[in-house]
Amino acid sequence: MPADLGDDIVEALNALVNTADTLFGAYRPEFSLGYWSGVAEGAEAWSCTFEGDIRGDDGDRFFVTGHTAAEVLRRASDEAWRRAPPAP
């Protein structure tokens, strides 16, 4: 089912909120969760865009896709920490 949220959606959302709340930088991060309802079965219907004081694909933001909402939230959290600049 393309609209699968994932078994650990609450934990994944909490992890990304914690990431956004604790990342250091010149400004506070923000993120958005997206879902494409018309994709074919098995395609990556979920997405997450993260914007913050990071090294991103598009300046200060990046975009990840996945099969469940929980998956993209976890991937965005991991990726945000990977792209964070060194602590001052």
Annotation, overall tally of beta strands = 3
Low-confidence stretches: none
**Overall SS class:** alpha+beta
- Count of helix runs: 2
Helix content: 25-40%
Distance between the termini: 44 Å
Biggest pleated-sheet summary: 3 strands, antiparallel
> Radius of gyration in whole Å, from Cα?
13 Å
Mean residue pLDDT: 89
Question: Could you spell the SSE succession in H and E letters?
Answer: HEEEH
Description:
The chain has 88 residues and is of the alpha+beta class. The protein is built from 2 helices and 3 strands. The chain has helices at 9-22, 69-83, and strands spanning 30-35, 46-56, 59-66. A hairpin with a 2-residue loop joins strand 2 (46-56) and strand 3. The mean pLDDT is 89.
Explain the layout of strands and helices.
Layout lengths: L8 H14 L7 E6 L10 E11 L2 E8 L2 H15 L5
Helix pairs in contact: 1-2
Question: Any descriptors?
Answer:
single chain; 88 residues; alpha+beta; three-stranded antiparallel sheet; 2 helices
Please give a quick description of this structure.
The chain has 2 helices and 3 strands, in the order αβββα. The chain is an alpha+beta fold and 88 residues long.
